[in-house]
């Protein structure tokens, strides 16, 4: 198959990938309906261009790989969607809940390539028994698909595995894939993976900065809740209004003195100051709006006793919403802080398993390639 044709087919697959949510919604009329129908569509598409023999082999290899993920997820008690096949791209499943840590996510990721390795082992025996070079193609193709998935880039299985060791390794995977894309004719799916991988690495690299912003946001919300609790005790709101006006003026002046652009990492301190000023302005605007609404509410008393005012429902609801946001921030902070933490023993196990699996798949890929060189196949 010529490179131009392969690129065209992959472009079709990328288009279908962009529409995968629509496809999934259409096909989930039964538990396995989406899997069976999308599998049939992929099988027909591959058969149209490559023949039924190749189509059955590639769909089988992809299916077993995805079932490996599903079995691993089931073992960890994580609910997933059924597998959905995408012609010329592969297949995908989605997790309906997030794993509790990176080690659990790595366990799920290992399931695919490990099952993928097992999937093409019968082809080794079939080649030895029949001498048919087609089985060499199956071996090569199965090993290559699963080895590619072990690239240490976040959207791939390898990226999810090495995150237990260090997410900094994602940058190494990006450099390797970029070198492949630049040095060889690459399909559009390679560029898509490179783009998603770059976004994943960048988000992780900027996580520390985001944690600082979240911490300041949480601080302002806690101050807001504490202040609102004291409002019913106020005899006058004049001093509060003057304080809010002063804070707004200071935040606006501070924001105006800073540059409007910044270089990530190099200007993080200045950017953080700008973020704090923006949060301060939002805090003042929210407080002023609430104060105005609260002042225009009539004060109710229990049994008409002026010493027993009924708590303002407006203030109560506002505090609950703010406390809910604080809880969400704390949850995200805890997750960011602990998700990638693993013991040394777990890291060694993950590293050894990753290297061994990559080595075995590499050996089988070379073996399959050797068979094809001994028996050249018609690639027209």
From TrEMBL:
<keyword id="KW-0472">Membrane</keyword>
<comment type="similarity">
    <text>Belongs to the peptidase M50B family.</text>
</comment>
<feature type="transmembrane region" description="Helical">
    <location>
        <begin position="45"/>
        <end position="65"/>
    </location>
</feature>
<dbReference type="InterPro" id="IPR008915">
    <property type="entry name" value="Peptidase_M50"/>
</dbReference>
<keyword id="KW-0645">Protease</keyword>
<keyword id="KW-0862">Zinc</keyword>
<feature type="transmembrane region" description="Helical">
    <location>
        <begin position="350"/>
        <end position="368"/>
    </location>
</feature>
<protein>
    <submittedName>
        <fullName>Site-2 protease family protein</fullName>
    </submittedName>
</protein>
<keyword id="KW-0482">Metalloprotease</keyword>
<feature type="transmembrane region" description="Helical">
    <location>
        <begin position="169"/>
        <end position="202"/>
    </location>
</feature>
<feature type="domain" description="Peptidase M50">
    <location>
        <begin position="54"/>
        <end position="127"/>
    </location>
</feature>
<feature type="transmembrane region" description="Helical">
    <location>
        <begin position="107"/>
        <end position="127"/>
    </location>
</feature>
<dbReference type="GO" id="GO:0006508">
    <property type="term" value="P:proteolysis"/>
</dbReference>
<keyword id="KW-0378">Hydrolase</keyword>
<feature type="transmembrane region" description="Helical">
    <location>
        <begin position="134"/>
        <end position="154"/>
    </location>
</feature>
<feature type="transmembrane region" description="Helical">
    <location>
        <begin position="7"/>
        <end position="25"/>
    </location>
</feature>
<dbReference type="GO" id="GO:0008233">
    <property type="term" value="F:peptidase activity"/>
</dbReference>
<keyword id="KW-0479">Metal-binding</keyword>
<keyword id="KW-1133">Transmembrane helix</keyword>
<dbReference type="Pfam" id="PF02163">
    <property type="entry name" value="Peptidase_M50"/>
</dbReference>
<keyword id="KW-0812">Transmembrane</keyword>
<feature type="transmembrane region" description="Helical">
    <location>
        <begin position="77"/>
        <end position="95"/>
    </location>
</feature>
